[in-house]
UniProtKB/TrEMBL annotation:
Domain RNA polymerase sigma factor 70 region 4 type: from-to ranges: 118-169
Family annotation (NCBIfam families): sigma70-ECF (TIGR02937)
Species: Luteimonas salinisoli
GO biological process: DNA-templated transcription initiation
Entry-linked InterPro entries: DUF6596, RNA_pol_sigma-70_dom, RNA_pol_sigma70_r2, RNA_pol_sigma70_r4_t2, RNA_pol_sigma_r2, RNA_pol_sigma_r3/r4-like, WH-like_DNA-bd_sf
All copies of domain DUF6596, residue ranges: 187-287
GO molecular function, one term: DNA binding
Protein name, UniProt field: RNA polymerase sigma factor
Highest taxon of the lineage: Bacteria
Pfam families: DUF6596, Sigma70_r2, Sigma70_r4_2
Length: 421
């Protein structure tokens, strides 16, 4: 198999697998079976595409192949003829299939396969952590190692969580059907968490050769916008949309043409997308208008808005950002929030103030393998002129980083600190 075709199949799978699994789950109403059918389609692509070439519409090819596999399995299992006919009908008539989907959308307020299946998988029978892990793996397109990094957990822990979640859904005989409107709100926190983590993986990839994965950001933004239309009175939905719009506005400035990361202070703000900034600020205003107090997503959006409103890095309202992080650490306390607050403190009140807080996090178990803790400490030590210590911290951060671009940047900063020591 040629390397080019291999890479193409890998890229297509990353993009199409969540939609493929979502569509299959809607039809077969069995999570494990949907995943197996999707994998069968991938195996068929690996066997055929190197000989025949990648089709013009690879997503449609994968779906059609998976549907054929579904029909074969249904025939072998001698399931209901009605179910078999339904799948065959969808496979064999494009026009009527489109009409059927349109009719289903009229009856289904969610109207988006991927978002609908996220709500279904975020069933109350599971803990919030299990809901998020399962939907990220099955429908968010993230690998188990990527989810583990997002949760700051060991990979085996996340893998077990996903397996147990599947078993729990099966044992409870959870029907894969659209939740009623009154059932949406209890699942909202998990759904928001899924969308947020998918966006984060796109904004700053935890592994691989690329620092950003814009496709994941686009998927998360689309889901957030659909969700805002579905639940227009939920302040935190608009808060999350605001956060994603504002963060996505920087994507064009976050990397050089060769893919090298460009950190926030060094970005050309003329390349920030003003349309997305405008949309983000409007969504933030809606969130603040709807909520009595700003929730965690709205607070993070407000922090992003401080950056968006500053014409230059030097004009950033860091004192205001510190106040927002203070509020966020009260509402949603976590070691990662504290680490971000340390950065803000350093920018507002000097690097020693930030280092003092960062040092308090050295014994936090969740940050034991989190590369950004030594990365932040290295940056603050360098600003204090403690270059030998900074070098050690940057090297430690590089050893923990899963992303190749980020690792190279940290090693470069280590070499720079070594030269100044």
């Amino acid at each position: 198999m040629s390397t080019d075709v291999n890479r193409t199949i890998d890229a297509v799978w990353r993009i199409e697998s969540p939609r493929l699994i979502a569509g299959l789950m809607r039809m077969v109403r069995d999570l494990d079976l949907a995943e197996e059918l999707a994998q069968d389609a991938l195996v068929a692509a690996l066997e055929r595409w190197p000989r025949t070439g990648v089709p013009d519409n690879p997503g449609a090819w994968l779906m059609a192949t998976a549907k054929h596999r579904a029909i074969d399995r249904l025939r072998r299992a001698k399931l209901l003829d009605r179910k078999h006919e339904q799948l065959a009908y969808e496979l064999e008539s494009d026009r009527e299939d489109a009409d059927a989907r349109h009719t289903a959308e009229l009856d289904d307020e969610i109207g988006d396969d991927l978002l609908r299946l996220i709500f279904i998988a975020c069933h109350p029978v599971l803990s919030t952590e299990a809901q998020v892990a399962l939907t990220l793996r099955m429908l968010g397109g993230l690998t188990t190692p990527e989810i583990a990094r997002a949760f700051l957990l060991p990979e085996p822990t996340v893998a077990q969580r996903i397996v147990r979640a599947k078993r729990s859904l099966g044992a409870a005989q959870v029907p894969f059907e659209i939740p009623r409107r009154e059932e949406l709100a209890p699942r909202l926190a998990a759904v928001l968490g899924v969308i947020y983590l998918v966006f984060n993986e796109g904004y700053s990839a935890s592994s691989g050769e690329d620092w950003i994965r814009p496709g994941l950001c686009e998927d998360a933004l689309r889901l957030g916008r659909v969700l805002a239309g579905l639940m227009p009175r939920e302040a935190e939905v608009h808060g999350l949309v605001a956060l994603m719009e504002l963060q996505a506005s920087r994507l064009g400035a976050r990397t050089a043409p060769d893919g090298t990361p460009i950190l926030l202070p060094d970005q050309d703000r003329g390349k920030w997308n003003r349309l997305l900034i405008g949309r983000g600020l409007e969504a933030l205003e809606r969130a603040e208008r709807l909520g009595e107090v700003r929730g965690p997503y709205a607070l993070q959006a407000a922090i992003a808005a401080c950056h968006a409103r500053a014409a230059t890095a030097g004009e950033t309202d860091w004192v205001g950002i510190v106040a927002l992080y203070d509020a966020l650490s009260t509402q949603a306390p976590s070691p990662v929030v504290e680490l971000n607050r340390a950065v803000a403190l350093a920018m507002a009140y000097g690097p020693q103030a930030g280092l003092d807080l960062a040092d308090q996090l050295l014994d936090a178990p969740a940050l034991a393998k989190y590369h950004l803790l030594p990365g932040v400490r290295g940056d603050l030590l360098a600003k204090l002129g403690r270059h030998a210590e900074a070098k050690d911290e940057f090297e430690r951060a590089a050893g923990l980083a899963g992303n190749e671009r980020e690792r190279a940047l940290l090693l470069e900063r280590a070499a720079r600190s070594a030269a100044q020591a």
